[in-house]
Amino acid sequence: MLIEGITPLTTQKSKFSLPEGIHYLNCATRAPLSKSVEQAGHDAISRDANPFGLRPDDFFSGSVRVRALFSELINNPDPDRIAIVPSVSYAMAVVARNLPNKPGIRAGQTIVLLDSEFPSDVYAWDRVSKELGLRIKTVPMPDEFPRGARWNEQILEAIGPDTALVLAPPVHWMYGIQFDLEAIGKRAREVGAWFAVDGTQAIGALPFDLTACQPDVVVCAGYKWLMGPYSLGLAYFSPAFDEGIPLEEGWMNRLDSNQFHRLMDYQPIYRPKAYRYNVGEQSHFIQMPMLEASLTQLLDWQPERIQSYTEELTKNAWPALEQLGCQVEPINGSKGRSHHLVGLWLPKYADALAVQQALLAQKVAVSPRARALRIAPHVYNTPADIDALVGVLTEVL
């Protein structure tokens, strides 16, 4: 689908170091580093080889740039609401740590989750739900096709006056089904529930508008669709968390912490907004420049253009695979499938792991998830990659 007024992307394969003959359709597991991100890492290592002249402000400046870039990507008007985190589980632990202090929290309320959600978005609530007497309400995935529209309806139906927290992603991490975050956020606000979004499998490749869905928390790991390094992520925290309790009491999160000559004058006051939730050693002198490079590149590519590119790239594959007995969620706006991450349901007789092995033998990389293959293309892919995928599946199925 071409977007009016936006120049479509052409293949960006030359900007990556992927070997010829490799058909990497697995960005949802881990993104390959572009040459610019790779170079940023090499340059950072070279700088670290000689730390002479390092200034106190250098411990903070890299994250300032990254927070601004990420804010532009998600339409966040206030970069000070972005924290540097090491993982999704870290940010979700912050939410769990502060849930006991949420206004109106009481025993018997529910935490609304999606069926088959990623473990980091599930394990976080076990302890706090027991301590507070909360119930976990999991919204099941519908059995019948198409699934997206009904699943979205069921989520809204599950949110009520007894809801304390709602967790939903832009797309399901296994199947690529989209969720209408604007409608979910609106419903959560109506009942006074917190709304948390794990954007890891979407932000960077799918347009995301913070001001439209108004979540309380958004977290995104950096090594998937942000196309940056591992063990570095970003999290947005709304004003609901401004006086919250962090997981760590890091010295860099306190007021005037860039004045190294006064660090022994212990400071009880945190830097404002999301700074208190920064992970310790937030400077990440090697990884931060890499994430800055990847975010800069994504803002040039634009998520809208990435969606259009991956849609055009794969549009002929789905009808061909459906002829083999596979199923794909149809396009249905914010309630249908995404284009950068698609769950391909295999016929009932097919073994997903065996199919994956057959694909790997022909150097085609995808991920089996339950009875589906998760196919996750990006701008480094070409029609040859899709042809290889369809060719192997035609032979196997």
Main features:
397 residues, alpha/beta, Aspartate Aminotransferase, domain 1, Aspartate Aminotransferase, domain 2, 2 domains, 7-stranded mixed beta sheet, 4-stranded antiparallel beta sheet, 12 helices, 13 strands, globular
Structural overview:
The protein is an alpha/beta fold and 397 residues long. 33% of the residues lie in helices and 13% in strands. The chain has helices at 35-48, 58-74, 88-98, 126-132, 148-158, 181-191, 210-213, 287-301, 303-314, 317-322, 352-361, 383-396; strands spanning 23-24, 82-85, 110-114, 135-139, 163-167, 194-198, 217-221, 233-237, 327-328, 342-345, 364-365, 367-369, 372-375. It has a seven-stranded mixed β-sheet, sandwiched between helices. α4 links the parallel β3 (110-114) and β4. The longest helix is centred in the first third of the chain and has 17 residues, at 58-74. The radius of gyration is 22 Å and the shape is globular. The model has no long low-confidence stretch (mean pLDDT 96).
- The CATH architecture designation of the largest domain is 3-Layer(aba) Sandwich
CATH superfamily assignment of the largest domain? Answer: Type I PLP-dependent aspartate aminotransferase-like (Major domain)
E-strand count: 13
Quickly count the helices: 12
Helix content: 25-40%
CATH topology call of the largest domain: Aspartate Aminotransferase, domain 2
Spans of at least 5 consecutive residues whose pLDDT stays below 50 are none
Give a quick account of the main beta sheet: strands, pairing sense, barrel closure: 7 strands, mixed
The helix-and-strand class reads alpha/beta
Termini separation comes to: 29 Å
Average of pLDDT: 96
**Percent of residues in beta strands:** 5-15%
Count of individual domains: 2
